[in-house]
Amino acid sequence: MKQFTGIITIACLLVSSGCQKNDKIRTSGETTINSERVLEGSTYTIPGFLFSTGSVIMYNPQTSTSTPDIFVLPIVDPQGNVTGAYLDSPNILESFALVGTYGSAVEATEAFNNYTTVNVAGYSALANPVQEHQVWVFKTRNDHFAKILILQIETYKIGQEPNAEVRFRWVYQPDGSPTFPG
What we know:
A 5-stranded antiparallel sheet has the order 1-11-10-9-7, covered by helices on one side.
């Protein structure tokens, strides 16, 4: 009987420790979002990124219950060519601040890793244009901060529809302080 009780105790500990790990807020990662819209009814659904959940979510202004923090959108020249990308936010406030643009992936990664406390001024409504090797700060609707390292940008068309895709590394501060978790 003692052996059976021991097995049950170990099983309970494993299950409870697994649950605790799943409840932890994801505060960093690498993500790709694109601008590919899907017509649903009379409005479009577009993917966006929500820092508080660390996930890409689909957003439709008429039907969604969650609103992403950022979207990627293509930059299109007068001839219809996709020339780049920018980040937008449904935030009412200005949310983006450029920390810096760096000459290489190594320099940008080092700057991103060493940027531990928000110390920028002059936020804007858009991150425009985003370029590889840039580091941005983002301020969420509830005044929490994220830092973003732009890793890769792809531009393309699907039919005649211009699109952009941005891959980025991010760190989110869920407690509202200006210092990022280590």
